[in-house]
Amino acid sequence: MLIISSFGYLNFFYNLARSVAKAFCIFILHVKKILLKIFWLCSIFLSFPCFADPFMAGDLVLGEKLHKESCSSCHDGMVPGGNGDELYLSEFRAINSSSKLKSQVEFCANQNGVAWFEDEIESVSRYLNNNFYKFLN
Questions:
Q1: For the chain, what are the domain ranges?
Q2: Which has the closest alpha carbon to 60: 137, 122, 133?
Q3: What distance in Å separates the CA atoms of residue 92 and residue 112, rounded to the nearest whole number?
Q4: Residue 70, class by beta-carbon neighbours within 10 Å (0-12 exposed, 13-18 middle, 19+ buried)?
Q5: What is the distance between the alpha carbons of residues 26 and 22, in angstroms, rounded to a whole number?
Q6: 121 C-beta neighbours (distance < 10 Å), count
Q7: Digit-coded pLDDT (tens) for 110-128
Q8: pLDDT tens profile 24-76
Q9: Is the dihedral of CA 6, 11, 14, 19 positive or negative?
Q10: CA-to-CA dists, residue 24 to 10, 18, 37, 86, 121, angstroms
């Protein structure tokens, strides 16, 4: 009799463990489905062109280097106190779109006799946009 009752308890705990494991597996599957939906929605949302960086092809490190070499000296002379980065502040800003920013970078390069390739113009534009302008498209 004692042996039969101990098997009863074992059976009870075995079934309890199976039920808990089954419930946990179902919970994990639901969490996985929810996370996949969130990932899918985020990837769709962020793939829209209106949320893309307008200068994705540009290299930030190269853009900063070219800006310091070719732009800073001219801009520093344009601002009292010698900090040319103040030209990019919103109070003095005449550029209001990413296309105008790229056109201005190209214009300045041509005016200063700098022969930049398209990727270099894109890199300087990306550097300026990431650090000052923050245009989304």
A1: 2-47, 60-133
A2: 122
A3: 21
A4: middle
A5: 6
A6: 21
A7: 988 888 999 999 999 999 9
A8: 888 888 888 888 888 877 776 666 555 567 888 889 999 999 999 988 888 88
A9: negative
A10: 21, 10, 20, 58, 55
Pull the structure tokens for residue 78.
């344009």
Residue 21 CB contacts under 8 Å (≥ 6 apart), including other chains: none
Q: Would you say residue 82 has pLDDT above 70?
A: yes
Angle of CA points 38, 25, 35, to nearest 5°: 5
Helices of type H across the chain: 2-46, 60-66, 72-78, 98-111, 118-128
Q: Is 71 exposed, middle or buried (0-12, 13-18, 19+ CB in 10 A)?
A: buried
